[in-house]
Structures are given as C-alpha cells and as structure tokens.
Amino acid sequence: MDLSQKTAENIEYMIEQIKTKLRMASGAAMSSTAFSVDQYEDIRDVYELVMTKSNLSISEVEALVSELGRLRSK
Predict the structure, then answer these.
(1) What is the mean pLDDT of residues 42-61?
(2) Between 28 and 54, where is the model more confident?
(3) What's the domain of life for this entry (predicted)?
(4) Sorting pLDDT into bands at 50, 70 and 90, what band is 42?
(5) N or C terminus: fewer CB in 10 A for the chain?
(6) What distance in Å separates the CA atoms of residue 42 and residue 13, rounded to the nearest whole number?
C-alpha cells in the first residue's frame, strides 16, 4: 500500500491497522470516515508510531486514543 498518497482509502487502512494493533474494544467508535484528509500527516505519524512498537503500555494506548480523538473531524 502506498501511504504517500493522501487519500480516504489510505486513512481507512491506517485507522483499521491502528485499531487492530491497539485492540480497541470500541473500535466502531473510531470510524475512518470521522477523519479528514487534512489531518493525513498526523494520522500517518500515529500509524507509524503504533506499527513500530511491539508492545504498548496502557498509558501509551490512552495517549494514542486521545490523540486520535483530537484528530477526528468535528
């Protein structure tokens, strides 16, 4: 997948991968359609951080979920 392209499909892919990695119980609340292409770079930063970590602490998961919540379109 070419994540260098700022597309809704890439956002959907990254959000789904983040939800899987974080094992989000309320993953349905984090729909990829809630994010704008305008925040693509920030979402990609979160995605890359999550994918490079083998384990995440509870506080890291909480911080990442909080950041994704901040990035959601209002």
Answers:
(1) 91
(2) 54
(3) Bacteria
(4) very high
(5) C
(6) 14
Q: Which two tokens stand for residue 7?
A: 């597309």
CB under 8 Å, gap of 24 or more: what pairs does 17-25 form?
Answer: 17/47, 17/50, 17/51, 18/46, 18/47, 18/50, 18/64, 18/68, 21/50, 21/51, 21/56, 22/50, 22/56, 22/61, 22/64, 22/65, 24/65
The percent of residues above 90 in pLDDT, for the chain, comes to 36
CA distance 58 to 22: 10
The tokens describing 21, both together, are 């990695």
**Dist. CA 63–CA 48, nearest whole Å:** 15
